[in-house]
């Protein structure tokens, strides 16, 4: 099973149109009286009810996934990237996430991008998963390793001069300042500028990410070190699955261990969405920890 199926640019709008939708309905007591509260129904492409989710407040306004995602795609087109992006979708009954991959394939078949998330359960409206830490210590972005169809999260340290050159750090910080400022304005022009700045920032990340990967590739992992890595970054729940994925692979470096974790998160049939994200977060910690020491 592949939880992160990549879509070519020609397939993205159709994929968006088939995402789950939601509507609100009145809630009644067992006696049939109106409670004054509303619930949310999540429906599939064919209109079948998938789940009822809580509505946190009466003023909550549903934003359909298509409403959230289509303007981002239009922004890519307006930025001249109609034929130069791909997308990976992750969907549950409570939210949908669209990872936009730009800039082509990088080192070791890794593609980089930013994510857009929309929820139906009131946990948050449209959210961009491409950000700079408030203390400017790192930048977070998403990735996809083409060779094994693995989803990825990547945290790039900004204070490691061996990973990111000072002039590149300054450029990235400037771009993120622009993105933050633009997000406080509305309209098509601000959306286009945000898309352009985000794409430029992702492109600048390719060099640091390549250096991070190469660093992990130089660190080999023996059986004893594998146990330590499992204990620190994986835990008991997915221990055997990650060990099996690592041993079945040809790369027994720390980068191979990282890919074993993302493989389990991306392909295991039994893993739940929350556990999948947790495992990807832990894998992100491996890549970050070995590039900040």
Describe the structure.
The chain is an alpha+beta fold and 293 residues long. The chain folds into 3 domains: 6-16 and 63-204, no CATH class; 17-53; 219-289. The chain is built from 9 helices and 11 strands. It has helices at residues 9-17, 65-78, 166-182, 188-204, 206-217, 223-234, 239-248, 254-267, 273-289, and strands at residues 6-8, 21-28, 34-43, 49-53, 85-91, 95-102, 110-119, 127-128, 131-132, 138-145, 150-157. Strands 1, 5, 6, 7, 8, 9, 10 and 11 form an 8-stranded antiparallel beta sheet that branches. The chain has a 3-stranded antiparallel beta sheet with strand order 2-3-4, with no helix packed on it. Helix 2 packs across helix 4 (188-204) and helix 7 (239-248) packs across helix 8 (254-267). The protein is globular and about 65 Å long. The model has no long low-confidence stretch (mean pLDDT 86).
Q: What is the strand and helix layout of this fold?
A:
Elements: E1 6-8, H1 9-17, E2 21-28, E3 34-43, E4 49-53, H2 65-78, E5 85-91, E6 95-102, E7 110-119, E8 127-128, E9 131-132, E10 138-145, E11 150-157, H3 166-182, H4 188-204, H5 206-217, H6 223-234, H7 239-248, H8 254-267, H9 273-289
Antiparallel strand pairs: 1-5, 2-3, 3-4, 5-6, 6-7, 7-8, 7-10, 9-10, 10-11
């Amino acid at each position: 099973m592949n939880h992160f199926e990549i879509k070519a640019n020609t397939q993205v709008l159709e994929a968006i149109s088939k995402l789950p939708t939601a509507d609100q309905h009145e809630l009644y007591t067992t006696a049939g009286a109106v409670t004054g509260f509303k619930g949310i129904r999540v429906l599939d492409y064919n209109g079948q009810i998938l789940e009822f989710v809580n509505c946190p407040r009466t003023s909550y306004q549903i934003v359909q996934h298509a409403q959230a995602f289509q303007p981002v795609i239009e922004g890519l087109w307006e930025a001249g990237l109609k034929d130069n992006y791909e997308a990976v979708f992750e969907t549950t009954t409570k939210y949908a996430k669209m990872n936009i991959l730009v800039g082509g394939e990088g080192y070791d078949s890794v593609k980089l991008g930013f994510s857009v998330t929309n929820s139906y359960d009131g946990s948050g409206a449209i959210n961009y998963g491409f950000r700079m830490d408030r203390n400017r210590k790192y930048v977070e972005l998403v990735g996809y390793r083409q060779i094994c169809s693995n989803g990825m999260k990547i945290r790039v340290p900004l204070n490691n001069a061996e990973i990111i050159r000072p002039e590149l750090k300054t450029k990235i910080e400037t771009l993120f300042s622009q993105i933050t400022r633009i997000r406080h304005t509305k309209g098509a022009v601000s959306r286009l500028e945000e898309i352009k700045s985000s794409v430029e920032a992702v492109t600048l990340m390719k060099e640091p990410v390549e250096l991070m990967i190469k660093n992990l590739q130089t660190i080999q992992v023996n059986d004893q070190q594998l146990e330590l890595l499992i204990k620190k970054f994986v835990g008991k729940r997915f221990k055997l699955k990650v060990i099996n994925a690592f041993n079945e692979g040809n790369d027994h470096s720390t980068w191979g261990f990282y890919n074993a974790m993302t493989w389990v998160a991306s392909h295991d049939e039994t893993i739940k969405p929350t556990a999948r994200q947790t495992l990807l977060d832990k894998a992100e910690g491996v890549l970050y920890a070995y590039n900040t020491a």
